[in-house]
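Students often ask why inverse folding is considered easier than folding. One informal answer: many sequences map to the same fold, so there is more than one right answer. In these notes we will look at a single instance of the problem. The structure comes first.
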C-alpha cells in the first residue's frame, strides 16, 4: 500500500472515532500539511464516504450519516472486542458479521483469536464487554497451550496454571491453579494488571468445566449465613429463583432436593422461597424459619383486610 493511500485510510480511521476533527489536528496526526488533508478528504468523498465540513472557530471535518456504511477500520483491540461480543449471540446477522471480520484479520491476530474462543465459556447467552486485550489474549494462549502464566493481581505477582476463561454477569474470570497456594482459584480479569506466559507446561484436569467451577465457587464462597432448605419440585423450577451461582442443589428421595446457600443477609430469602410456589422445609438457620413465619403472618393479615 502506498503512503498516500495509507494516509487516506488513516484519515478515515480518525474520523470514525467520532466528533469534529480540526484540519490542524488532522494534519499533525497524519504528518502532512493542511492542504494535503483537504485533498485526502476529497478522495474520501469520491469514494462516497459521507465526510461533512463544519465551519466556525472549532470547525473541521466529521463523518455525517450516509445512505451506506463507509469502510470500517478497526485496530486489534477493537476487532477483538467486536468478535468476542458477537460470539455468544445467535442469528444470521451476527454470524455473517463475525465471518466478514474474521476474513480480513491478520494471521497473527486470527490465530490468537481462535485460541481465545477455544478457551472461553459463557454462563449465559448475554454478550459482555471485553477486558484488556493484552491480558485476555495472553491468558487464552496459556489456556490453549497449557502454559503457566505470571499475573499481577492485587499488586502481587502470582504464577497461575489457567484452565479456562469464563464470562458471567458482565465480568470476565480466569479459573486455574494458583501455584503459590497449590489450590484452584478464580480471578477477575479486570483486576489483573498484567499477564505473561512463562516457560514450562502443565497438565490440566480431565474434563474440567471452567463455567461450572466458577459458579460453584461463587455459590460456596464464605459468607455470614449458611442456609439449608429442602424443596419438593424439579431442578428447573428451583433454578428459576436460585441459580447455580447462588445455590448448590442435591437430589433427595421422592422428588425432594436439598438446597444449600451462603448469604450475607437472610431478609430476601423468604420472598424467594414463597415465589417458587413449592413445598419447602427450612433446615437451618432458625432465624430464617422466623423470617418465613413473619412473612406468612403479614400476607395473612393483608389477605383478611377489606
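Output (designed amino acids):
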Amino acid at each position: 500500500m502506498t503512503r498516500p493511500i495509507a494516509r487516506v485510510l488513516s484519515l478515515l480511521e480518525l474520523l470514525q472515532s467520532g466528533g469534529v476533527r480540526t484540519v490542524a489536528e488532522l494534519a499533525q496526526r497524519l504528518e502532512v500539511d493542511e492542504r494535503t488533508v483537504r485533498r485526502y478528504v476529497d478522495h474520501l468523498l469520491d469514494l462516497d464516504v459521507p465526510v461533512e465540513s463544519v465551519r466556525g472557530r472549532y470547525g473541521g471535518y466529521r463523518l455525517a450519516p450516509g445512505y451506506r456504511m463507509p469502510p470500517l477500520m478497526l485496530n486489534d483491540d477493537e476487532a477483538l472486542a467486536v468478535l468476542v461480543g458477537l460470539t455468544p449471540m445467535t442469528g444470521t446477522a451476527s454470524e455473517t458479521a463475525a465471518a466478514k471480520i474474521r476474513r480480513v484479520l491478520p494471521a497473527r491476530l486470527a490465530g490468537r483469536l481462535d485460541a481465545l474462543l477455544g478457551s472461553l465459556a459463557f454462563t449465559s447467552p448475554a454478550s459482555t464487554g471485553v477486558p484488556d486485550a493484552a491480558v485476555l489474549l495472553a491468558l487464552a494462549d496459556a489456556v490453549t497451550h497449557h502454559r503457566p502464566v505470571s499475573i499481577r493481581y492485587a499488586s502481587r505477582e502470582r504464577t497461575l496454571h489457567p484452565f479456562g476463561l469464563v464470562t458471567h454477569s458482565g465480568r470476565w474470570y480466569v479459573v486455574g491453579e494458583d501455584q503459590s497456594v497449590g489450590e484452584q482459584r478464580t480471578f477477575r480479569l479486570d483486576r489483573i494488571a498484567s499477564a505473561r506466559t512463562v516457560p514450562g507446561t502443565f497438565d490440566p484436569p480431565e474434563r474440567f468445566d471452567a463455567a461450572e467451577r466458577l459458579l460453584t465457587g461463587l455459590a460456596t464462597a464464605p459468607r455470614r449465613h449458611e442456609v439449608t432448605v429442602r424443596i419438593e419440585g424439579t431442578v428447573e423450577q428451583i433454578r428459576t429463583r436460585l441459580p447455580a451461582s447462588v445455590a448448590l442443589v442435591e437430589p433427595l428421595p421422592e422428588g425432594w432436593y436439598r438446597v444449600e446457600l451462603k448469604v450475607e443477609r437472610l431478609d430476601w430469602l423468604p420472598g424467594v422461597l414463597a415465589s417458587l410456589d413449592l413445598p419447602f422445609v427450612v433446615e437451618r438457620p432458625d432465624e430464617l424459619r422466623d423470617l418465613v413465619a413473619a412473612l406468612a403472618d403479614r400476607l395473612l393479615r393483608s389477605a383478611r383486610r377489606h
